[in-house]
Amino acid sequence: MTKKISKIYLLTFLLPLTAIIWRALYRGYHYAGWEIIFAAKGLFLIKDFGFVEAINKIFYFTRNCQYCGGDGIILNFIPGVILSIFPWEFWPHLLTFLLFIFSFWLCGISFQLKDKQWAWLALTLGSSATLLSHSICGGQYVSGMLPHSLALLIIFHPYFKKNWCCGLLLGFLAIEISWHVYPLGKTIFILFFLAAFFQNKVEIKKRVMHFVLGTVSAFLIYSNNVGVGINKFQGLDNLIAISWENFVNILKIIFWEPGMDLLTIPVLGLICLLFLRKNRLLFAGILLSQWLLVLLLGFHGLPHLRPRRFVLVDFYSIVILLVIVKQWWPDIQKRYVKFCIYTLTIILFCGNILQFMNLTEFTSVNIHKQRFSAPYTFSRADYYIRPQYEDAANIMADIVNQGKKIILVYNYYTYQENRTNPEALPERLCLKLGYEKFKENIFIFTKQRRHISQVPTIPLSEIDTTLNKIKNFNNYLVFRHPAGRDRKFKKEEPIIMKAIEDKFTLEEQEKVPPFIVYKIFPHDVHDGEFIKDDVNYGEFIKNDVQYGEFIKTWLIMGDIPGPTNPRQIFSEDFLVENGGEQKILPTEGMVHHYKDNITSKWIEYSSPTDLINFHKIFKNKKNTVAYAFTTLHSPINQKVILALGSDDKPKVWLNGELVHQEFGRRWVEPDQDKIEVLLRKGQNTILLKVVQFHGQWGFTCRLLKNTDT
Fold it and tell me: Nearest CA to 62 among 207, 225, 201, 216?
């Protein structure tokens, strides 16, 4: 019997955990920009202003110009610090989940839950689809629960009944935290006032403490420029007519509109209020106050009724369910109490099943056809997700990781990309790549400053100076965002494109929706005019080479000691001693020194066949690497095809810029990789790096006319 009960308890924890993991796997990288823009802003502030100044600015924002609860130490600074050390786009989501777990853990501590009662808490969470979805949605919404959890700890934990001074200090901390989370967190003043007047069996000094905390919290809201005052939160001063008809319409949306919330928990919370033995007025006041805020938002305008408005409604409904179980648990042996507890348990299990049925139905639809990436995160205004932007961000990140740079002609003025920014493409890239890598490789020219978040941009006035610095044209792509209907961007976009077109010739590439992609070339570039005469491939190459002929003479170097992991070999630079892979200009006899007094030197090698066969030249033939280098002279700037075959896959640098890399195993065949490159007028250098797993090892290389492909 005990084992069966243990399995049931284990099931109660597995149900919400499975639902969360299911959501995370379904979402993948498809998430709304709301979920990362505040972390990106924190990263920007830390990198551009330093830690101390970033904290000063964040505190200023929380009191003067906070937008939608997106500014604060919790939402900006902490994720910004982590991202500055370990770039990863999912840090905000993970931190939100940990904050969600911590808030409910504090609730459990507040009411001193026992083992079986923790299982009850897990069961209630599994019935709340809204909370489960928002627990991984990386946004600011569930952060509003944290100050309420701290306030419950202060009010109900026995320690703070005896140590009211510690409770006062923790209360001040909770009030300050409420300014660093979602605005609903500031409604803790209601909880403190209710505790001051309606909490059962507490000393007068503790009531005074609660009243002081409530007064301080309310005064800060009233005296500061931002807050959650009834007339300030989401513009509630502009209420539509409060009428019975509007009230009925609001109830219809709440209880019948699909996608608003599964009502298992909110309805149970209201019902269980009637059966509380203690502090009924306190819990009724705080729960009904959250319902009142939802109704007021509905009277402000029906589009303002969104699932995230139910986060604190669900939170306090779960709190009431915990309290009723805690109060009735000592009488669990009584028949009617046992019947009530079992009935609630069955209802909650049914709520879990209903939540899973809803999740199954939701995830059966391809996410590219969804308007939001998790159940009950829908918003008419700012949660619309267009997967093409997310896919474009991934493609851009891959391009940058291959060593290329992007000029991003981007619309900073649209409603979606400015004020609410659900796709947040620049922020996605910044979190994927890391701040420094983004700044070095993504060039965005604009006059506009972001309203919510910032990423490194370049003032439009500096566009000519920046473009004049571009030398290695092979490494640059232009991604052009369509102007659309936005008047401001319609004025800015032609200015940016004209500046680019004045400097370069643009060649349109395959489109990356919604972006138009171009390669850039100098204006004097020609196609297919190369090698009419003998071409000198470096001082050590004397043979004549024509288009289509394989290059057989190279400087090569192998027998390099190092790691045995091929992927690590592929990424490690073994030429650092003499300039590194990007800058090296080797000569015959140049020596590289490695550990254990091992040396390796460059030798000139002329192959009797089209294949440069490293397998015959070098002793070390397994899990190793070799380099090959040559130079060639071009009489003009021109586009050509660098055609490679290799065993195994190579890295290629042209004039010090990485133009191609592909890791993996394969047999060598001529022209396996055809890379369009720009040869600049004068001398050009080519460096190949070919990693060897085992078996055969070598490469072929030749130039083809641009029209030969």
Answer: 225
